Amino acid sequence: MNNLFSSYSIGGLKLNNRIIMAPLTRGRANNDKNIATPLIAEYYRQRSTAGLLISEGSQISTMGVGYMNTPGIYSEEQTQAWKQVTKAVHDEGGKIFIQLWHVGRVSHPDFLDGKLPLAPSAIEFDYNARTPQGPKPAPIPHELSVGEIAEIVAEFKNAAKNAMEAGFDGVEIHASNGYLLHQFIAPCSNIRTDDYGGSFENRSRFLFEVIDEMKKIMPENRIGVRLNPSYHNDHGMFLTEDTIPTFDFLIEKLNDYNLAYLHLSESGRRAKESRFAETQIAKRYRKIYKGTLMINRGFTYESGNKVIEEGGADLVSYGVPFIANPDLVRRFESGSALAEADTSTYYSTGAKGFTDYPALD
Ligand SMILES: Cc1cc2nc3c(=O)[nH]c(=O)nc-3n(C[C@H](O)[C@H](O)[C@H](O)COP(=O)(O)O)c2cc1C
Q: Residues near ligand 1 with C-beta < 6 Å?
């Protein structure tokens, strides 16, 4: 029987275990060019015993950013800087994917050189951007034209090309948590009447165009997709009666691809407020999705082992536990206690609360 310590293969890449580090924005690229630094390389190196590391969300363009000091993967300098990260992880025998991110409307002109954030539809929504001057309400965003959507598809492709150049083992497309691709999928944020709005197919079109373009320049089986079908009451996103049928359609269609994995999140606390939430995400989508399923949110050592032993998922990703436990794999193996992460340093600068959590002796 498989468990968290069983090896696993994705796209010809052998993962030493099934304990995956989930993407975690940490805001340490606090430099003019939003490039990875030696400190960021050290952070990932410390965590390289995970079966696979998925990097923090990394913007694919200057318009894709919505938070302070997040790294980019669109410029030549950013691409070169990521090489120190992939090398540090590979030198330790680890594997690393980069999460490709466009936040869409979850931003503010302060991050965008005064421009309006981009979105499927120019509608009001409830969100306060975390700007350097404190929280500011997000404005009504700019509705993307069809031509502008094509430009963003090309930006995703360029970011994937840069990721390969930088030595990443693969990429994860961030299509969840209320960011741009999710904004197209959800009818609460997408009221378009063209080919990108309305039907399930139209609302999923942008994501599939991104995958179709990316696979022209990198192996399809090194592309992962992250979705969060029960995401609710955050970043202005709401579940509706249409949500789960939309994801059923979309995830069924992902079977046409030979992806590295599908990364799903179990529903969070807020989903309980909605009668439209699917409360057993892995269970529902294990039946629909035929490829590698990675499951996230709230897993412990015990519950992670259980879901793998029972065949409910192939891989389990851990977010917060990796922040204060760089050697999470070893702690699970030895049954050691886990350290608690300090939330005040999640998005601060410097080594404190980033690279100074000790491993066990
Ligand atoms: C500090 C922090 C930063 C995060 N940044 C990202 C991110 O960049 N991309 C993403 O997809 N999810 C992000 N998440 C969500 C995590 O990947 C994960 O879904 C969440 O922590 C729940 O998993 P856990 O219960 O194992 O922590 C972040 C979560 C935290 C706490």
A: 22-25, 56-57, 99, 174, 177, 226, 265, 296-299, 318-321, 346
CA of 28 to the centre of ligand 1 (A): 15
Which residues are designated catalytic? Answer: 179
What percent of the chain clears pLDDT 70, i.e. is strictly above it? 100
208-264 pLDDT, tens per residue? Answer: 999 999 999 999 999 999 999 999 999 999 999 999 999 999 999 999 999 999 999
Q: Return the best residue to mutate from 24, 60, 73, 340 for the ligand 1 pocket (most ligand atoms within 8 A of CB).
A: 24
What is the overall mean pLDDT for the chain? 98
Cα 181 from Cα 94, distance rounded (Å): 29
pLDDT class for 199, splitting at 50, 70, 90?
very high
Residue of 4, 25, 67 best suited for mutating to test ligand 1, as the one with most atoms within 8 Å of CB: 25
